[in-house]
Amino acid sequence: MTARDFMAADKAVAVEQFNTGRKRGCIVRWDFETVFNQIPAKKKGKRSAVPSEIHQQDSATQVDSGFVSFSVMVYPELPTPDKVIEDIQNDMKARYAGEAQPEIDLEFYRRAIDELHNC
């Protein structure tokens, strides 16, 4: 299973090629999920009969942090599309074992890796 990584939402791309002269590879990201911050409500001056922990959970708001979390794999050489899809499927099976998996457009990744090979 791959580790989760974080990036500013407007900079997170699914497939990114790098070419350092000696190495020509790519970075593949999938399973994007918006990261939310939970901001507790301001405390009131008077005490209530409801415990403060419960009161804060009910009145807390979630705010979009501007970041996304995702799984990432760095390939030092250009991989085959089948290798990338296999890695994504294996990660999703491990991460969401027994749960409903989010939908991922695997054909998008196949086309993107094919385009890198044709450049």
Count of strand segments: 4
Strand-pairing-aware structural class: alpha+beta
**Any idea what the radius of gyration is?**
20 Å
Distance between the termini: 30 Å
Number of helices: 3
Order of helices and strands: EEEHEHH
Q: Summarize the main sheet.
A: 4 strands, antiparallel
Strands of the widest sheet, in order across it, are 1-4-3-2
Q: What is the helix fraction of residues, given as a range? A: 25-40%
Mean pLDDT: 85
Percent of residues in beta strands: 25-35%
Gross morphology = elongated
Residue windows where pLDDT falls under 50 for at least 5 positions:
none
Oligomerization state: single chain
Describe the structure.
This protein is of the alpha+beta class and 119 residues long. It has a domain at 4-34 and 67-118. The chain has helices at 52-59, 81-95, 106-118; strands at 4-8, 15-19, 24-39, 61-75. The chain has a 4-stranded antiparallel beta sheet with strand order 1-4-3-2. Helix 2 packs antiparallel against helix 3 (106-118). The longest helix is centred in the C-terminal third of the chain and has 15 residues, at 81-95. It is elongated, with a radius of gyration of 20 Å. It starts with a strand and ends with a helix. The relative contact order is 0.25. The mean pLDDT is 85.
